[in-house]
């Protein structure tokens, strides 16, 4: 990509050059026309002057030496001296006289009066002829075309030379003007280049020129988004570290108890607790990774469509061991044939967390059900459990990552709901947590609206 | 030494309770600030181990409220937020000590002993009375160069008596110290342990104050 500076320089230089060239061509043309006109007029005037002298017998034809030197506007030693030649011919073809330096050959064979062009002694001439029938003479005055051409060339040279000198200077001036004109852009660039990777403050509020202002705004917008993403990342890391430290402290305490237990019963109990704690911490790490993945995914990639119920069944299979361990049954309902084309991973992550929460909240022997509701407008996945549900205060706090459910038996952090909410946001899906209408328990529903990127019921 | 543990993580709750009991403390565990408030108003605790992030609020806010109401119970804040700023904020809020997660049980026990000692106005780690030096860190006593070993419950009773040597402690108060809420109190248990202590330390070391409870005998030579 050619730089703006080079592009402007080329355009300005070319435009200036073109203007100069056309001016030059125009001046050259008009100069030539004018020179022709003036010289022609002079030829005609000189011919008529000589003819009148002959007619009034002021000079004797034949005394050629008496004819004055051709009138010239130029001094004698100039290139253009002796430019005009004159011949006086009798009608019968005898040369009565000629000016000094005039060729001996007839200047023109043209019979009539007026202008004509001819070749004399190998040179092109322009001749004006005046015939005087009364005196029986024909007066011819002519000049060499080469001289005319030299005149035109000299004028042309006079124009081109200064142009050749001025054009480089002009180019230099254009370059300097561009540098000055583009200075705000340079400052803008330098300001951006001087930034460190962590420097995510908006660009200085000094008013940018109108042309750069939209660019500065766009850059500030990007900086804002990057800063927000970094903040979220930092928050996430701090949160993850914090969330992991508590179970780690528990594990460490249990390990120390196992090491110094005074009796076998205490030791065995601590070891059993250790094992349970490790699998719980493992689940927590999985959730943290889920959250990181859910937050990282943005642009939907088209995937081979998979029916919603198959995705749900996969999740149920993955969590079967957890359900068994807690003596909870998992049931996937009928329907759910809607193909999911995008964000399958997000959908499964959200579902897994909902089902996991439901299993954790359920009493032994209960059933956790994954159901599907398909209307023309949307497709809903509902995860219902028979747990104690959430308290009023949990309902508001459930989404905050730093909160946990306080219900008895609700093991695990409040991460699950946070993951579901983030994933739903990324999918453009709705998420509602509601109490069961028919007794204790919770219904968590994810709604993928028809036409949303998540689902496409028309296919 | 009754310790109230305010921690919502099940695994850590259990670890703290078992670990501190092994170290000679009598811990009680609650999971929320509401329960903690109730426990503190209904029972005497020598110290509180307090988590910061609890389901029903911030432990530091709870601590501030506690100090505003004039409660002097030593509080050790135990939390995953162990940045310098967090530690300073915790101590300035009224915490007596601050320990980041994860931690060593031994260190937690030592810090608890230290804040208890300072609370009692002592600087020496051992409790000394009538020629007996009781080492709370090792739960052993020494007398005339000979080491005297105690069971956990004997240690708890002896420690309670030696903390305030001239005070009379009722049987109920001693029972509360020896047994947490979770433990079944055996009848005559306190008498049994006092009897065993007298066998180890001499019959006159602990006096029975009829109708009131127990106290240590006055120091020999002090009158």
TrEMBL record, chain A:
Superkingdom, natural source: Bacteria
Location of region: Disordered: 384-404
Residue ranges annotated for the Histidine kinase domain, each copy included: 239-452
Main location: membrane
Keywords per UniProt: ATP-binding, Kinase, Membrane, Nucleotide-binding, Phosphoprotein, Transferase, Transmembrane, Transmembrane helix, Two-component regulatory system
Membrane-crossing segments per the record: 6-27, 158-178
Catalytic activity annotation: ATP + protein L-histidine = ADP + protein N-phospho-L-histidine
One CC-aspect GO term: plasma membrane
Subcellular localization, as worded in the UniProt entry: Membrane
Keyword rRNA processing: no
The EC number(s) this enzyme carries: 2.7.13.3
Signal sequence, start to end: none
Entry GO MF terms: ATP binding; phosphorelay sensor kinase activity
Gene3D superfamilies noted in UniProt: 1.10.287.130, Histidine kinase-like ATPase, C-terminal domain
Domain HAMP: 179-231
Membrane-related topology note: Multi-pass membrane protein
UniProt-listed PANTHER family: SENSOR HISTIDINE KINASE YKOH (PTHR45436), SENSOR PROTEIN QSEC (PTHR45436:SF14)
UniProt name for this protein: histidine kinase
Naturally occurring in which organism (per UniProt): Amaricoccus solimangrovi
UniProtKB/TrEMBL annotation, chain B:
GO molecular function: phosphorelay response regulator activity; transcription cis-regulatory region binding
Primary site of residence: cytoplasm
Keyword entries, A-Z: Cytoplasm, DNA-binding, Phosphoprotein, Transcription, Transcription regulation, Two-component regulatory system
Residue ranges for the DNA-binding region feature of this UniProt entry: 124-218
One example of a Gene Ontology biological process annotation: regulation of DNA-templated transcription
GO cellular component terms, A-Z: cytosol; protein-DNA complex
Keyword Protease on entry: no
Entry protein name: Response regulator transcription factor
